[in-house]
Amino acid sequence: MSTVGALSLCAALAMPAYAVETESKPAEHHHDNSISGFIDHQELQKSLKKIEATSKGVVQVDVVGQSHKGLDIYTARVGTGDKVLLVQSEIHGNEKTGTVAILSLLKSLSNNSKQAKKIREEVTIVFMPMMNPDASEGDKRRNSLTWSEVVEDYPQLNDVAPSWNYLDRGISQSYDYGANPGFDVNRDFNPDLNYVPEEQDFPGASNKPGWFITPEAQTSRDVYKSLQDEFGNVDVFVDLHHQGLYYVGGTADPVTLSLSAQFVPSPSSPEGSKYAEYADKYNYDFSRQLNLAAYNELQSYGNSKFTNISLYSQGLDLPGTALGSYALNGSGTVLFEVRGQTQMMGQKEKGQLVKSVERGLSGIIEGVADGSVEQLDPEAYEDIPLTSYSPSF
User: Fold this and answer.
1) Which residues form the Peptidase M14 domain (predicted)?
2) Which fold has domain 3-388?
3) What pTM was computed for the model?
4) Active site residues
């Protein structure tokens, strides 16, 4: 996408920073950083209902599942085009900027501008703005499900060790999981979307598929499968996350946002041969093109923090993530990792980080809508600087 095109899209989609009510925020959290400017579950519900009503039918909001504690999990759908994008946020509850960005984009994509109408004709976008509400309300990474509750649902697991992504001891990211155990939901996915837990697959490992034992992962999967049934394929899947404090490789510039297209080795490669059954669906080049669309959009802003973009760690083999599982099922995939989680930074730099997510997503949406993403050279993805764990001087 040209700089002019990128800037015109952002102008078309740009909205004022989303203002939220704060009266329902808890007075204290398990860390010292304020998160009062982010969105809690009650505010999300109110905001989605308001956006749906204001859009006069353009935005469709649905309850698609419940968290372990019974909080509603929502989708918000906009557009009627044949190309479908699924965008998911807050699978980790201390990674909150994506939710704010989604609400802002919903407003702009549902307005009456010529650009917004054109986009809606070409694409259907399904947002899951708070995929793990229990974790969001607790401002923590993991959900609130216990292993004993899993065994109640799956008695065949009675004699196996808990899955490796279950934490029931110690302090992690300022949260006491010994007192409040839970699962990392983003390790509970499986490329076999019809998988049923089997005892021989536990406790598993980070380079092995997950199990769909959490209600949150089950809900994401069910949304994905329903879109497959409707469209034949989910063209694009974007997962919105946060990371630690890193640097753009070869510089002393702190990373604003890391991107990635790679979560499992290619099924056509020797190291990816265990995924051979998915070889006909996997499209790494398209994933790279989507990441380039986001990268080019952010780079179009010239000399600013929006250009501090890097590639997340490459060479990964994570089939238990949503990104890995959905990539093997035929989706072009994009990871967003903005700087800092709430226990590290609270809402510091929230406005800039939210805007980075908005602008990166707008680059992808526009590129898919007008087909320009398919004209990008996927090899250019390899020129994006890698994330560094320390500054280079």
Assistant:
1) 37-368
2) Aminopeptidase (3.40.630)
3) 0.89
4) 337
